[in-house]
Amino acid sequence: MTEAILLVGGKGTRLRPLTVNTPKPMVPAAGVPFLTHQLARARAAGVEHIVLATSYLAEVFEPHFGDGSDLGLSIEYVTEEEPLGTGGAIRNVASRLHSGPDEPVLIFNGDILTGLDIRALVDTHASSGADVSLHLTRVEDPRAFGLVPTDETGRVKAFLEKPQTPEEIVTDQINAGAYVFRRSVIDTIPTGRPVSVERETFPELLASGAHLQGMVDSTYWLDLGTPQAFVRGSADLVLGRAPSPAVPGRCGDRLVLPSARVAPDAKLTGGTVVGADAVIGEGARIAGSTILAGAIVEPGAVITDSLVGAGARIGARTVLTGAVIGDGAQVGPDNELRDGIRIWCDTTLPANAVRFSSDQ
């Protein structure tokens, strides 16, 4: 049996207002909490036991997933009283692991949507005899990420955090946020204080002569840290570009949950999701967007690459482009919101309050 740790304790600050009332892994993507996709993919790869390392809004996870039996898993929950960072969170849940000292433990960041071949990563770990194995992916612009150069056998040579100059960019391989640890390595992480695996654990292991192995897997990969990325990831799940056994319906241009109501002449395209009990009015056009549970989109509204929070209302003829509307917000008719604008939860925006002229 391979077991796993899922790191789901982050506050999701960059995703606000989506994460004001909901922890990032529980924000719906393609109709279900994003964490559901990660759990389902882990189970499909043969994982049976998962420990969730929780912190922010920790109380919402267990009521939803319970003991994990509905997903064919055994799930346990460990809550950090104070944020401990990625390494600290891993160490904090070590007592719940069942693996022997030399057995593999999978570790996933809770905000990565990926098509990673999980079994291939475990097999690479076993065949290389590594202490830690890392999923690496290649990106065009690596400046926002941690670079991980490797030798010709895939053995990690260094960890370079967020390089800025051309001289510092020695590879396009980045840390993609999934690891396999030899169980005994987890016990070497300090307890009772914040620890970053990226900035402390991995560099120290490398300096001590430990074997860190990289496996490049350049299938689908997306960091869901921003609202725009989250909306895109949800659409890609619906469109079938990102793999998941947990999408509650057939992949296609749209996903409408059964209790939602959509006017016959409304047009939904580009992987749009309409959540439970949401209402889409006559003539509305929605592309590549997520409409969460109980939201109302009034007639003639045009919504593109945007997210409308639970219970929010979008007024008639209002135009949203790249916008995020918080839970319970009320956006009046004839507004135009675009370019990454965010409307906070429960805010009321009057009719015709925000408009853009055609030459802007």
Structure write-up:
The chain folds into two domains: 3-223, Alpha-Beta Complex (Spore Coat Polysaccharide Biosynthesis Protein SpsA, Chain A); 253-349, Hexapeptide repeat proteins (UDP N-Acetylglucosamine Acyltransferase, domain 1, 3 Solenoid). Helices cover 18% and strands 29% of the residues. The chain has seven helices and 30 strands. It has helices at 34-44, 61-65, 85-92, 118-128, 183-186, 197-207, 227-239; strands at residues 2-7, 28-29, 32-33, 47-54, 74-79, 104-109, 112-114, 132-138, 146-147, 160-161, 173-182, 212-216, 221-223, 254-256, 261-262, 267-269, 272-274, 279-280, 285-287, 290-291, 296-297, 302-304, 307-308, 313-314, 319-321, 324-325, 330-331, 336-338, 342-343, 348-349. A seven-stranded mixed beta sheet has the order 5-4-1-6-11-8-12. The chain has a six-stranded parallel beta sheet with strand order 14-17-20-23-26-29. Residues 4-236 form the Nucleotidyl transferase domain. This is GDP-mannose pyrophosphorylase.
